[in-house]
Amino acid sequence: NSDGVLPDEDVEEFGEGDYGVGVIAQGDPAERAESFLVNLLLNFDPTYAVEVDQISDNEIHAEVFGGDPGKIIGRGGRTLAALEYITNAVVNRDDSIGVRVNVDVGGYKRRRDERLRENAFAAAARVRKGGHAVEMEPMSAAERRVVHMALADESDVITESTGEGPDRRVVVKPA
Known about the structure:
Blueprint: E1 11-14, E2 21-24, H1 29-44, E3 49-56, E4 59-65, H2 69-73, H3 78-92, E5 100-105, H4 108-130, E6 134-135, H5 141-151, E7 157-162, E8 169-174
Helix pairs in contact: 1-3, 4-5
């Protein structure tokens, strides 16, 4: 329900001590995402709030407000990425639908994606001006995807990922 409190019969407990987290076992994917995030975040700080929107049959957006956003975002967005991964695992564990839950905190990912798009267009401009490939900084798979998508419609440049592990990056080249 909307206040984040679940009836006992709908909750499975996992974890130990006072930090067990209730996970909703029933309901649609958006309800499961909201319930999981609310119950988890209340263990950190009762001032966090979650707003969940069903974007499509297979996409949910969850926005976290309040509290200290830095605690949820973590260094380089790593804590937020982990939270999103766990939320997706919880929401999809009993379904074959494969719903994607995007979790953001105070617009952090939206601003990061916009910055990545700006950097991608700047790299493309350098390629056009200099005629040679431009390597971007190392990025996560999700960040590389933003760059590839940003430049997908640019007919005079191409993008490819190169490198291994944490050094994987996008290279923008003349077409």
